[in-house]
Write a structure and sequence with these properties.
By secondary structure, the protein is an alpha+beta fold. The protein is built from 1 helix and 3 strands, in the order βββα. It has a 3-stranded antiparallel beta sheet with strand order 1-2-3, with helices on one face. A hairpin with a 6-residue loop joins strand 1 and strand 2. The termini are far apart. The structure holds zinc ion.
Length: 56
């Protein structure tokens, strides 16, 4: 079996707001009002991504 997708993104809309909350496959999270901006953030991976639990 081979999975066609090597990357998993998840985008949720935050009820009561105009914000989208996205989670990258690396665990980084991001919020944006513009879906296009959200996708640009995801596609820019790993730039600007800071996965939780990663010590700097
Ligand atoms: Zn990422």
């Amino acid at each position: 079996m081979t999975a066609p997708t090597g990357e998993v993104y998840r985008v949720d809309w935050l009820p009561g707001t105009d914000l989208l909350h996205g989670t990258c496959h690396c665990g980084a999270e991001h919020t944006a009002e513009d879906p296009v901006a959200m996708w640009e953030w995801m596609l820019a991976h790993p730039e600007g991504h800071r996965p939780r639990g990663t010590a700097v």
